[in-house]
Amino acid sequence: MERSFLEKSSDIELRLLIEAIYLKYSYDFRDYSGASVKRRVAHALRQFECATISALQERVLHDPAAFMQLLQFLTIPVSEMFRDPSHFLAIRQEVVPLLKTYPSIKIWIAGCSTGEEVYSMAILLREEGLLERTIIYATDINPASLDKAKQGIFSLENVRAYTANYQQAGGQRSFADYYTAAYDHAIFDKTLRENVTFADHSLATDSVFSETQLISCRNVLIYFNKKLQDRAFGLFHESLCHRGFLVLGSKETLDFSAYNKHFEPLVKQERIYRKS
Amino acid sequence: MNDAAANPMCGIEAIVVGASAGGVEALLSIFGDLPQAFGLPIIAVLHLPDERRSQLAEVFARRLQIPVREGQDKEVIQPGTLYFASPGYHLSVEHDRSLSLSQEDRVHHSRPAIDYLFASAGDVYGKRLLAILLTGANQDGAQGLAHVKQSGGITIVQDPDEARIAVMPRAALALHTPDHILTLSRIASLLASLESSPC
To answer: Domain ends where: A74, A107, A127?
Structure first.
């Protein structure tokens, strides 16, 4: 690509920081979308009260605890239960009947963040009588998010919004059946996660760990550049069984990917694909 | 032929536009005269109440001669196309001239945010960017526009005396001095003349 101007110092510093993080901690943000990473580092600079990215780099290189703090800025824990209810309704109507033909099911929720997608999927599977014969792998790169996901405790205020989502998503019971309210929190039924394995896994650096029938990776890939998206699609393709399902976030698409031909849309509007 | 330096508009590679309250009418009036063969990409953030499916692209496609779409994640930016940010997502330009979406925190209570788009486009296009900020009732876009100016781009603010809601233009003017303060009809003729101006 032609560059008609010299790189700005801050852009050089940003690249060096991302490289330093990779070399020191093996977290690979080198192929994340540039504009988003730049904004998040700028935000971190203010919180860390560092004048320059170089100063932040010095801190995180010499202080692993500071790096773990920075990691909370570099990952985006924005999630909801039954986010985009029509997506979950389509899974219930179009995917579940096919999943029911498998004697046992493995599902990978890649980039599960704080667990909202995991509990949504587990609730859906329980109502469809599939949870007992399903193993869910819930993976993320952020250990703090995984810890929160394992606890299954969400703010009651958010759970009110999730309740509306759940109902629109074809929920068959009262959403309150799945949690116990305690003060301003909702503690979700721990039997929902009996068959869930939470694990540290990076779509940027790790490889496939199991054959799966369904992979859900929602609002994760938008933070990757095209090259890293293709790496992730490659992992999903390798992990999925013959005719396995891939479900994405509502604005994510295979249209611009090298893997476009390797999947076919089942419900395109809801970003539900099948391995070709 | 004029020297390129004499007309800063001739190196323009892309246009970004931000608007909020009153923005639909304002955008229709500045894009209404663009010919089908218009050659520059236009990327726009218009604040709207959160809806899962926006009709914005359809509405504008029916009224304009140029193609109009919701910008999709990792889509390579095409010349002569108007892209709108999707409701609920920030939209940015990447160095390979593709679009990216993000669900990071709201900026000035907005997602999509004008600041988010303008800052990224300023980084990518530098002096080859034209940024336009129109009517609106909040402060979004002011910082982004100042960033575009710092990156060498050309900035235009709608004349606050004409704007349906002047808060957004005035916030921008309080932060930096744009290259032009123009009425909608002047912005429209400037856009329509962009490609025919001698370079």
So the answer is: A74
**Mean pLDDT for the stretch of residues B144-173:** 97
ipTM metric: 0.91
User: What is the structure's pLDDT at A211?
Assistant: 98
Same domain, A124 and A210: yes
A114 vs B: CB within 8 A: no
Domains, chain B, ordered by start:
11-193 (3.40.50.180)
Q: Is A56 inside a domain boundary?
A: yes
Is A72 an interface residue toward B (CB < 8 Å)? Answer: no
Residue B153 DSSP class: -
Cα–Cα separations (whole angstroms), residue A241 to A153, A204, B165: 33, 21, 56
How confident is the model at residue A1, as a pLDDT? 43
For A8-26, write each residue's pLDDT tens digit: 888 999 999 999 999 999 9
Mean pLDDT of B95-103: 96
Residues 6+ apart with CB under 8 A from A94: A266, A267, A272
Name the token pair of B156. Answer: 């235009």
Query: Are residue A164 and residue A257 in the same domain, yes or no?
Result: yes
A260 close to B (CB below 8 A): no
Query: Inter-chain contact A226–B74, Cβ cutoff 8 Å?
Result: yes
Contacts of A229 in chain B (CB under 8 A): 74
Of B54, B92, B110, B140, the active-site residue reads B140
A79 in a structural domain: no
Residue B75: its chain A contacts at CB < 8 A?
255-256
For residue B196, what pLDDT is reported?
A: 62
Cβ <8 Å between B95 and A84: no
Contact yes or no for B99/B73 (Cβ under 8 A): yes
Same domain, A39 and A108: no
Q: What is the pLDDT of residue A6?
A: 63
| DSSP secondary structure letter of residue A93 | I
- Quick one: A29 and A105 in the same domain? no
Q: How far apart are alpha carbons A141 and A112 in whole angstroms? A: 9
Q: List the single best residue of A7, A13, A30, A222 to mutate versus B (max B Cβ within 10 A).
A: A222
Q: Is residue A21 part of a domain?
A: yes
Nearest to A252 among B73, B98, B105 (CB): B73
Domain closes at, from A74, A105, A130:
A74
What global pTM score does this model have? Answer: 0.93
Beta-bridge partner residues of A212? A240
The residue type at B175? L
Within this chain, do residues A64 and A17 fall inside the same structural domain, yes or no?
yes
